[in-house]
Amino acid sequence: MAPTPCDTPPLSSPTQPLLPDLTIDNITDEVVQASSRSGDARLDYLMERLVTHVHDFARETRLSTGEWMAAIHFLTQTGQMCSPVRQEFISLSDVFGLSMLVDSINHPKPPNCTQGSVLGPFHTSDAPHLPIGSSMTTDAAGEPMLALCTVCDSSGRPLSGVKVDIWEADSSGHCDVQYTGRQAPSERCVMTSDVDGGFWFRAIRPVSYPVPDDGPVGKLLGLLKRHSCRPAHMHFMFEKQGLDRLITTLFIRGDQYETSDVVFGVKPSLVVDLDKVDNETAAEYGVAEGTLLLRHKFILASVRETEELRDEKATEAMVMLGLKTKLVNHLPVPDLD
């Protein structure tokens, strides 16, 4: 196939100065200038900061050609490892702590609300919508657990009609999408909170497990002499109009990886204890006495609460960084006025 001719005229004029002799010291300014003409203030700002930081990284580390090529090959292999049921780039973002950082910036929570955590690479959109009280597990080897949960707003009012997406690994530490020939979702479901903000289900005790280490991210962890394990946990995602979407995780207290989660997802407020079902609760919910019991109240922030807090924190951060910016659609852009 013949190359397509370049038919976009350059942004130049007869009076434009000659291109300077590009050097280590001045190339960043030239690239920033060339990348700041989109007409989209936020895009221009993102590119200006990205180019500046990437160039500074290369200068500060005196990045070698071999290291640069190794990084390109690493990112290429990361993309090649992605599939509809595996997102290696999310894993990369997770192990760098970037996923947690972005979530914390974009979804700050009032002090009394449930804190967020990472989505992880194994969420799917095909989980079955089950009635409250159903079992979400098909794992006979797992230790049975009853989960009794409620969801309310920051004022303590019960929230009905909240879509609750729930998922976890099986008793061997594998998510369903990790199995070749997966036929149907397992260890996951979607429920809707009732008029009292309640939802309950049967599952298995969460277990600790390694993130997939057979790809580029696993090799990187090995080079860094970092383990690849996550503490025992269960994922939850809450959605309803007017509420800030909450992606969070409950971690089982006492796990050996509680303080060294490979994706930095653990927060003290998300670490919970498991109890045992007593005789009265067993009769009410139709489970055996002594079954493991997870009981938790989730407190959700509204979109308005989150936006106000995000704006406040963004303004404070920009001042501390010495950057003159203003907020447009709750995101900072240069203030050129």
TrEMBL record:
Keyword annotations: Dioxygenase, Iron, Metal-binding, Oxidoreductase
PANTHER family xref list: DIOXYGENASE, PUTATIVE (AFU_ORTHOLOGUE AFUA_2G02910)-RELATED, INTRADIOL RING-CLEAVAGE DIOXYGENASES DOMAIN-CONTAINING PROTEIN-RELATED
Cofactor(s), by name: Fe(3+)
The family this protein is said to belong to: Belongs to the intradiol ring-cleavage dioxygenase family.
Region of interest: Disordered: 1-20
Organism: Trichoderma longibrachiatum ATCC 18648
Protein name stated in the entry: Aromatic compound dioxygenase
Residue ranges constituting the Catechol dioxygenase N-terminal domain according to the UniProt record: 40-112
Gene Ontology molecular function: catechol 1,2-dioxygenase activity; ferric iron binding
UniProt GO BP: catechol-containing compound metabolic process
Pfam families listed in its UniProt record: Dioxygenase_C (PF00775), Dioxygenase_N (PF04444)
Domain Intradiol ring-cleavage dioxygenases intervals: 135-280
